[in-house]
Design a protein that fits this description.
Elements (H helix, E strand, L loop, with lengths): L4 E8 L3 H12 L4 E4 L8 H4 L20 H6 L9 H14 L6 E2 L4 E7 L4 E6 L4 E9 L21 E4 L13 E5 L3 H10 L5 E6 L5 E3 L7 H19 L19 H14 L2 H6 L9 H18 L3 H7 L10 E3 L11 E5 L5 E4 L3 E4 L4 E3 L2 E4 L8 H4 L2 E3 L6 H4 L19 E3 L5 E2 L3 H25 L34 E2 L5 E2 L4 H15 L25 E2 L3 H13 L7
Parallel strand pairs: 1-2, 1-6, 2-3, 4-17, 6-18, 7-16, 8-9, 8-16, 9-12, 10-11, 19-22
Antiparallel strand pairs: 4-5, 5-6, 13-14, 14-15, 20-21
Helix pairs in contact: 1-13, 9-10
The structure holds flavin-adenine dinucleotide and ligand NA7.
Length: 571
């Protein structure tokens, strides 16, 4: 084992979250390192290099808001960003802010143990490096641990098998017989991208999904100029909305308008494009009212039957359950099924029996002969990356044990009692939104917590408020909202022997937050529909509440409330 390296903070994960956390902690002049299993920065976009990988958040909000100059000058030419463009953007940010030397790649956190007497974490890694940080920030990503179903015969296949989240560079599928298992957001993207190039494409679909056009198109220079003028306002508005997708969420119930008007509104959303827009800009009740949901679902089903020429294929592609999974959008998904080289297998009618050396055998005895099998089968989302490694808090109790009975819990999606000075970015029960604005919100809050602990440690007294020092990025210090200065803070940060202070959520705060998240999702049709959003996509995983459904604006209000009330809920 190598000699332990002492650090102020260790950040794990080099995606959107880890990069910004590094930036803010360096600004505080702390000694910080970021480690990642990956070979470079990028997180999601380093791993997901499959053809068609695209963010379906519009380009102007799938980036950082804090570098105002870069926000206006960095080029993007289309309304949506392709995976490689996002990767290039994140590399650019790291270079522009001279952060590269602080990253260590090809390094996995395998174990982290809290030591109460030292007031530090001991972090072990796959490279044998040992780090001893005061603060451990885990930005492990909520969609990053792959879900690879254990289908009998998997290892017998003579061709190539790839999961979309581990796509090999330069893989050429031209002229190949390709099978894609899965038709979520990823499956829809990869199928749409490769259909025209491969010899044969067999799409193995278990549950049909609702998808609407993305509306991707080139950006008009006048649009960009206008946006550049208003960028600050646009971001402020997004952060004070529910989902932060850059449109105003509707407050109009589905049946408050006539049938004709409703059809017109759905059609307008279909033409504009965007899955979240279709669900939340049109009407306010699609996600929780059964009749409203059916109206939206019927509209999309009609569109599918108009687009897909073969009526039997169209029938198979039409979902029958609620439109209540992560809303999808595409660049011509249903159209691909009009190609003569594209076939659809309905796995509910003919399930996979096994993978054979030459392909996939179905329950009716038919073998689909294939050269390549693509698993677009998603992720063990949210807590998957946390329970896979050994993170031990006080008394040697692991996070996995802490979450064993009730499911993954936290306070604010950030902190867990008995895991002191550990802060999660996008941990369980954080907001369900377009993610960069939520990531920024959490990263800034975490930076402010650490700054407070540091200040109080050096001064030997409590800082005069979590964010009262004019932190240039502090989202809660009045920089972006002007409301909170934290001067009434009477926070109770534990003082360790020596001068190190320790912050963690209280058990009561964790319980209250968990109950709130449970309550907020209780009436949602999303909860009644199996998907990764409630942890019901992975075999053997217990479904549970994994998100705060109150929206980003309310989440930010909750954080301000924490600050104004003396770090309420933290010990
Ligand atoms: P990630 O980008 O996932 O980075 C986490 C990093 O942690 C990874 O690099 C991983 O290797 C590393 N890591 C994990 N465990 C360890 C460990 N034990 N040791 C060392 N390193 C570790 N979100 C949106 O808001 N809009 C979209 O349109 C959108 N599209 C998406 C499309 C795809 C295909 C996928 C997979 C996700 C999409 N997302 C989207 C979600 C996306 O994950 C987030 O937007 C964002 O990239 C998350 O950033 P992050 O830094 O939190 O995590
Ligand atoms: P998703 O949305 O979880 O989709 C996974 C797909 O894989 C879905 O169609 C699943 O069918 C299918 N699947 C999973 N396991 C199997 C097995 N064993 N057999 C057949 N089919 C299977 O993951 P994505 O990667 O598409 O998207 C995840 C998020 O990443 C997305 O929401 C964006 O935010 C980015 P099922 O529906 O379970 O019947």
């Amino acid at each position: 084992m190598k000699a332990p390296q002492s650090l102020d903070a260790l950040v794990v994960g080099a995606g959107f979250g880890g990069i910004y956390q590094l930036k803010l902690l360096l600004d505080q002049r702390l000694s910080v390192k970021v480690i990642d299993i990956a070979g470079d920065v990028g997180g999601t976009w380093y791993w997901n290099q499959y053809p068609g990988a695209m963010s379906d958040t519009e380009s102007f909000l799938y980036r950082y808001s804090w570098d105002h100059e870069d926000l206006r000058n960095y080029p993007w030419n289309r309304h949506y960003l392709q995976g490689p463009e996002i990767l290039a953007y994140l590399r650019h940010v790291v270079k522009r802010h001279e952060m590269r030397k602080h990253f260590q790649f090809n390094t996995e956190l395998t174990k982290a143990v809290w030591d109460d007497s030292e007031g530090r974490w001991t972090v072990e890694t796959s490279t044998g490096d040992v780090f001893k940080p005061k603060y451990l920030v885990t930005a492990l990503g909520l969609l990053s641990k792959q879900n690879l179903p254990n289908i009998p015969g998997l290892n017998s296949f003579k061709g190539d098998i790839h999961h979309t989240a581990r796509w090999p560079k330069g893989l050429d599928l031209r002229g190949k017989r390709v099978g894609v298992i899965g038709n979520g957001s990823t499956g829809v993207q990869v199928i749409t991208a490769i259909a025209k190039d491969v010899k044969e494409l067999v799409c193995f679909q278990r549950t049909p999904q609702y998808s609407v056009p993305s509306g991707d198109r080139e950006v008009d220079p006048a649009y960009r100029e206008d946006l550049n003028e208003k960028y600050a306002e646009v971001w402020a508005k997004a952060k004070e909305s529910l989902f932060a997708f850059g449109f105003e969420e509707s407050s109009r119930p589905t049946f408050s308008v006539s049938d004709e008007e409703r059809e017109k509104i759905f059609e307008e959303a279909w033409q504009k494009g965007g899955g979240f827009r279709f669900m939340f800009w049109t009407f306010c009740d699609i996600s929780y009212d059964e009749a409203a949901n059916k109206a939206a679902a019927d509209f999309i089903r009609r569109k599918i039957s108009e687009i897909v020429k073969d009526p039997e294929t169209a029938r198979k592609l039409q979902p029958t359950d609620y439109h209540a999974r992560r809303p999808l959008c595409d660049s011509g998904y249903y159209q691909q099924f009009n190609r003569p080289n594209v076939d659809l297998v309905d796995l509910k009618a003919t399930p996979i029996v096994e993978i054979t050396p030459n392909g996939i055998e179905l329950s009716d005895g038919h073998i689909c002969e294939l050269d390549v099998i693509v698993f677009a089968t998603g992720f063990d989302a949210v807590d998957g990356n946390y329970t896979r490694v050994a993170i031990q808090g006080r008394n040697g109790r692991s996070l996995k044990e802490h979450w064993a009975d009730v499911g993954p819990t936290s306070y604010l999606g950030i902190s867990v009692p008995d895991f002191p000075n550990m802060f999660m970015v996008l941990g369980p029960n954080g907001p369900f939104t377009n993610l960069p604005p939520t990531i920024e919100t959490q990263v800034e809050f975490i930076a402010d917590l650490i700054e407070t602990a540091e200040e109080s440690s050096t001064k030997g007294e409590l800082a005069d408020g979590l964010v009262s020092n004019g932190h240039p990025n502090g989202q809660l210090n009045g920089h972006s909202n002007g409301h909170v200065n934290g001067h009434n803070s009477t926070q109770t940060i534990e003082k360790k022997s020596g001068s190190q202070r320790v912050i963690e959520a209280t058990p009561e705060a964790e319980q209250e937050w968990t109950e709130l998240c449970d309550k907020l999702s209780a009436n949602s049709l999303f909860r009644k529909t199996d998907s990764w959003i409630f942890g019901s996509n992975v075999e053997g995983k217990k479904p549970s509440v994994l998100f705060y459904f109150g929206g980003l604006a309310n989440y930010r209000k909750a954080l301000r409330d924490v600050v104004q009330n003396g770090l309420k809920g933290f010990r």
